[in-house]
Structure formats: structure tokens, C-alpha cells
Specification:
Layout lengths: L1 H32 L8 E4 L3 E5 L4 E5 L7 E10 L8 E4 L6 E7 L10 E2 L5 E7 L5 E2 L2 E5 L23 E8 L8 E2 L2 E8 L2 E8 L3 E6 L2 E2 L26 E8 L4 E10 L10 E2 L9 E7 L2 E2 L15 E7 L2 E12 L13 E7 L1
Parallel strand pairs: 2-14, 3-15
Antiparallel strand pairs: 1-5, 4-11, 6-10, 6-13, 7-8, 8-9, 8-11, 12-15, 13-14, 16-17, 17-23, 18-22, 18-24, 19-20, 20-21, 20-23
């Protein structure tokens, strides 16, 4: 029994020695994997920069302004000090970086350079006029180069970084149909650098968004082209003397780019510049053209969407009533023509962009 006990003790002692040796080797490996002389960036915080953007209390959005377009009159610029009295400064000893985290407080992440304002159908853009940067949600890692002195940063490094310091905030239409939302005042975006608050962008006042349209003052127009002798038509493309008429539009209180599309009421797919006569007409070999500045306009689909096929852009209207001068004429469409009644019908669709 004594001999067996001695044997067991000897075996246990050998195992302990092996375990200790393994533990010693593991300890050496762990020590060897630790970086020698590791350093991190050091950041210091001054008061944060505050942009308080004061927009008009009411902003009118043209009904057919294309999605993604800047809203007219919805641009504000503001500047904060660039003397180092605000912002975050960081120093580096190597290639380490610090995170700059941009957060939207109005729900949603940026798409491109536009950040949504919840489900209002309106978004905003933040642009630094000093550096050319556009600010969007997410994280950007900053290194020593971003804090270096330079013409767009500061004269003495390390620079105290802020958004801007000259900042432009622009409201953008991000949804086709707007339900006249009210944009709340308060914080819209901020950025922290290395965990410290660097800059905050707020809207100073509530904004009532109004989706407004113009009104057509001449919704139905009859153009009498008169009696035209057959001898007036000498070849295909020849026509009668134009008869002038106007379309009236009242855009009081709204600045918009005005467009118009004419549509063949019988054949909406017609994209030529000639309106066929109605089926009740007796005349033959004749069509009708609508002229703008002496040139026949082409017909297109019944749509107010910007860029509709054959849409005619009239130009900008600045809060006033306006008239669109046009003319109409008969035009010969076949080598053989026949006299008689000659009628046609077209519709027009206004686009307010």
C-alpha cells in the first residue's frame, strides 16, 4: 500500500509540473501579444456650436415640384465662430482615429445628401459653405489630418472642429403629395466627436408647409377658326390664318415654374402636332394645330408630372395672374381635301413646378 501511495503522489506531482509549465508558456504568449507603447487620441471639449435656423413661418410648395427638388424660399444660412472658442479638438500620436457620429432627431436616415423629417414628405440638407461638406447621418472616423491647420479649418493646430462654420440648411420635397404638414421647432441634427458634443442644428420656429396650386381662370375655351376658303390650302402642311386665344392662370401667392401639356381628347396617345377632326365633321384632309410663338405644339399625355412628354415650359410666375398667348389654325393633312364643318377637341393640363 505504501508503495502504491508513493507512485500516485509521484504521478500527481508530474502532472502539476506540466500544468505549471503550460501556464508559464501561456502567460508568456499573452504578454507577447500585448502592444508595446499603445496610445489613443486625446480630445478636449469647448462649448458646442449651435445653429438655430429661422425659416419663414409659412412655406408654400408648388404642387408639381419634382420629388428631390429644393423648396423655393426654404433656404437659411448661419455662421458660428471659427476662432476655436467652440467645438472639439483632438491630438494624435499615430494613425489612430476618433468617431464623429451624426444623428437625425426627426426620425429616419439620410438618403444621398437629404435627411428625412419623419413622414412629413419634407427633408433637409446641411451644407458647409466653408468646406463644401454635406452632413448626413452615420459615423465618420477622423484622423490627425482633419484637425490640422489649413485655409478651411484654423490657423493653429489642433483645430476645434464644428459643423460649418458657415452652414446652409435647405428644405427638400421628398414625397409627391404633401398633406400640409407642420415642421416642429427643436433639434434636427447633432454631431459628437470622440464622445463630446461638437455641434447642434435646430429649427427656431414651427413651419407650416402648404402645398399650393394655381387656378386656371379659363377652364373652357372655344376657338372659332371661322370660314376658310379651300383655295387657302395649296399643299400638305399649308394652313389658314392663325386665330389668337389665351389661357389664363392665377398664381397669386405662389412662385412657380409653369408648364402646360395639350392632349388629344379623342386619341390621348397622339404625340404629333396635329389634332384630327372629330367624327362628326364633314370636312376631310384637314387637321387643327395649336401654335405657341408661331410653332405648332405637339400633343402629349394628360399628366401634370414634371417632364411629361411634350410638356411646354412657360416660365416662372412670381405670385401673379398671367396669360399664356396661343393661336390655332387649320392645316392641310392630305393631298385631297373636302369642305364642310371642321371641329376638334383638345384638353390642357397645367403643371406647377
Amino acid at each position: 500500500m505504501r508503495a502504491l501511495f508513493s507512485y500516485l503522489v509521484a504521478r500527481l506531482t508530474q502532472r502539476e509540473r506540466k500544468t505549471r509549465r503550460l501556464g508559464l508558456v501561456a502567460g508568456v504568449l499573452i504578454w507577447a501579444l500585448l502592444p508595446v507603447g499603445a496610445h489613443a487620441a486625446t480630445c478636449t471639449s469647448n462649448p458646442s456650436a449651435t445653429f438655430s435656423m429661422g425659416f419663414p413661418a409659412t412655406i408654400v410648395v408648388p404642387r408639381d415640384l419634382p420629388v428631390g427638388s429644393d423648396i423655393p424660399g426654404a433656404v437659411v444660412q448661419q455662421q458660428v465662430p471659427a476662432d476655436g472658442s467652440v467645438g472639439i479638438a483632438c491630438t494624435f500620436t499615430g494613425s489612430e482615429t476618433v468617431p464623429a457620429v451624426f444623428t437625425n432627431y426627426q426620425v429616419g436616415s439620410s438618403s444621398g445628401i437629404v435627411t428625412p423629417i419623419g413622414n412629413t414628405g419634407v427633408g433637409y440638407k446641411l451644407h458647409s459653405d466653408s468646406t463644401g461638406s454635406d452632413y448626413v447621418t452615420g459615423t465618420k472616423n477622423l484622423g490627425a489630418a482633419q484637425f490640422a491647420a489649413g485655409p478651411t479649418t484654423c490657423s493653429v493646430a489642433p483645430c476645434h472642429l464644428v459643423m460649418g462654420p458657415v452652414m446652409t440648411m435647405t428644405l427638400v420635397k421628398v414625397q409627391q403629395t404633401l398633406s400640409n404638414p407642420t415642421l416642429s421647432s427643436g433639434k434636427y441634427m447633432d454631431v459628437t466627436i470622440g464622445g463630446y458634443l461638437s455641434s447642434t442644428v435646430s429649427i427656431a420656429n414651427p413651419i407650416q408647409i402648404i402645398s399650393q396650386t394655381c387656378s386656371v381662370t379659363t377652364p373652357s375655351i372655344d376657338v372659332d377658326l371661322g370660314s376658310v376658303p379651300l383655295r387657302k390650302f395649296t399643299t400638305i402642311g399649308s394652313g389658314s390664318d392663325p386665330v389668337n386665344f389665351n389661357i389664363g392662370v392665377d398664381c397669386t401667392g405662389l412662385t412657380t415654374n409653369l408648364g402646360i401639356t395639350f392632349t388629344d381628347a379623342v386619341n390621348p396617345s397622339n404625340q404629333t402636332n396635329t389634332l384630327p377632326l372629330s367624327s362628326t365633321s364633314i370636312a376631310a384632309g384637314i387637321g387643327i394645330q395649336i401654335l405657341r410663338n408661331g410653332t405648332a405644339v405637339a400633343y402629349g399625355p394628360d399628366s401634370n408630372i414634371a417632364g411629361t412628354t411634350n410638356q411646354i415650359m412657360i416660365g416662372q410666375v412670381n405670385g401673379t395672374a398671367t396669360t399664356i398667348p396661343l393661336a390655332a389654325r387649320y392645316v392641310q393633312t392630305a393631298s385631297t381635301i373636302r369642305g364642310g364643318s371642321a371641329n376638334g377637341k383638345a384638353t390642357f393640363t397645367m403643371s406647377y413646378q
